[in-house]
Amino acid sequence: MALFRLIPSNEVIGYVLYLVNILIILIIVYRLYSEAKRGGLGLNAARLIKFIRYEASSYRKGTVHLMHLSILLGVSLSIIFTLIYPLVYGNQIAHYVMFTISLPLLLGLIMALAWRLKVLARSFRVYGELNIEETVKHRSIALQSILIIVITLTASTLALSLFTSITYIEVKLALSIIDYALIAAYYVKPEVNLYLNLDLDLPSLREAFNLKDVLEGKVDASQVKAGAEKLSDFTDYELRSLDACVEIGACEEACPATLVGRPLSPRMFIRKLKYIKDTEGLNADLFKVIIDDEAWSCTTCGACVYNCPIGVRHIDLIIDVRRRLVELSRLDQKKSTLILNITQYGNSMGASNYGRHEWLRELGVKTVKENPSFKHLLWVGCMGSFDARAREIVKAFIGIIKAAGLINDIAVLGDEETCCGDPLRRLGDEGRFQEVALSNIEVFKKYGVKSIVTICPHGYNTFMNEYPRLDDYMKGVVVQHHTQFIADLIKKGLVKVRQTGEALTIHDPCYLARYSKSTKPQRIIATSVGVLKEPRNSGEGTFCCGAGGANYWYDVPEKTRISGVRLSQLTETGAGTIVTMCPFCNAMLNDAARVRGFKGRIIDISELVQESMGDSH
């Protein structure tokens, strides 16, 4: 018993407190195991190593992830110190070592506490703006307050590790009991949710059904339901998001819709669904607490999911609500027109598809029929095919290809090119999306397409991340965005650019940088041409232009424009030239520039390269 002596033998309090701590720690471990097992994975070494690696590297995403890591490590260190108390009690050096190790975590916990208080203060404004009912509001305040207490207790127990006095030890053990009990109740599900969702990335929007199976008679069409009207319509991983959310507020902080005063807070969207789940069960009608414009406000930019440190899948839930709204035909004229245009004309612009690529003939671009030995299919896209400004981007890109001597390596589909389907899926029309996608894949098979190059990040994401889940043929097709293609030409020396010294800033498209994690090619190009000045939100942490999620084609109530906010972020760098990589981003930022009187330039990266080639070609 001497080994486990916490305090003099005539004292019982220390022993009792220690044993209670051990009991609660065992409960935490059991709950972690049982929740993971319920999620279908259980705790295994390989998965745990992957989880630890993810958590250890997550600080790169920003301050919130760093604070979350501090909490996780702080709790872990506190538990370890509690477990080894019988071995180190009275050893002053051991206490000093523990406290020294704890110091950086204490700083992180203080930051986390400040963040929590900030989110709580902001919540009162959000409650008012979104007309959150009192019961949901009170539950939200209570949860946030509890998590503030957990952070405070964890910081306190770490700070008390400095002292060897029995009084301080008893205080530390008493506080740990409360801390660990709250952790067992509130922090297990969030961490397990992240553990289970590690393989789900932003492109992992689920298929509600497989249209091929329906068409082949493998699935009864009458049993197909795409959207969610009741909570029971959500999948297990979506429902876990409701239980996992602890209102960290990182989603809300990063959400462009919330920032501009749209009727959406990703945090409260999740919390309202959690409320009816707890009060009415899985058969509850989610439209009791969700209004249509909440779902339509989302740009699907992915900032909420990317910034959530515990893996909540806001977008998946929002898209499932949209799918149900489409099923119910609760669409305004602009949304209905978008669906009609793609269905009737084969493109999102509502133009006749006949002669779609005739204007490319004068640039020397042939169709796949005329150039059957092509290496790369140039997917021009709806904007690139019909929008006058976007056509200039395509022309610049083709000019670069010509300069590299590769014009005969590319071809277009001509009238056989249609919409890629991205607007349909993001709007919530899953059936038509899959119909369009499968039709396009058959065209690719027909012409033996093995490589696709596109100027549109939405098409790029759809072809690379979503089509392969519908047909294995697409797993063998190389998909490139034009930034990647151009950067490769520069690297190979096929295109030479001049360093102009011009001050440039880059606007990273959400579907290129955050969804597809492609951030280096555009920076290689920009720094080869000018001096790059990064905006406050850049790379995978970029800020939306406002066009995503099919928002380009319809309107929702808002106090200001998302594109205006993004333009301000870009112009505050002092750069006179804004470089875009998406025709939709270019259009949105140009609109904002006209309204706000921006005197600089907004050009596509292909136009930047074509300018800088000068007389070298």
List keywords for this structure.
8 strands; 28 helices; globular; 617 residues; 56% helix
Topology:
Layout: H1 13-38, H2 45-57, H3 63-83, H4 85-88, H5 92-129, H6 134-159, H7 166-186, H8 188-196, H9 211-215, H10 236-244, H11 250-254, H12 256-259, H13 266-280, H14 292-297, H15 303-307, H16 314-327, H17 333-345, E1 376-379, H18 381-386, H19 388-403, E2 410-411, H20 422-427, H21 430-446, E3 451-454, H22 457-466, E4 478-481, H23 482-492, E5 503-506, H24 510-514, H25 520-529, E6 531-532, H26 562-571, E7 577-580, H27 583-596, E8 601-604, H28 605-613
Parallel strand pairs: 1-2, 1-3, 3-4, 5-6, 5-7, 7-8
Helix pairs in contact: 1-7, 1-8, 3-5, 3-6, 5-6, 6-7, 8-10, 19-28, 23-25, 25-28, 26-27
Radius of gyration: 27 Å
Strand content: under 5%
Residue windows where pLDDT falls under 50 for at least 5 positions:
1-10
**Shape, principal axes of CA atoms:** globular
Cα distance spanning the termini: 85 Å
State the total count of DSSP E strands.
8
Q: How helix-rich are the residues, as a percent range?
A: 55-70%
Rounded mean pLDDT is 92
- Give me the side-by-side strand order of the main sheet: 2-1-3-4
Derived structural class: mainly alpha
Continuous helix count: 28
* Major β-sheet profile: 4 strands, parallel
Description:
- With 617 residues, the chain is mostly helical.
- β3, α22 and β4 form a beta-alpha-beta unit.
- α8 runs antiparallel to α10, α25 runs parallel beside α28 and α26 packs across α27.
- Helix content is 56%, strand content 5%.
- The chain starts with 12 loop residues before the first helix and ends with a helix.
- The strands form two sheets. It has a four-stranded parallel sheet with strand order 2-1-3-4.
- It is globular, with a radius of gyration of 27 Å.
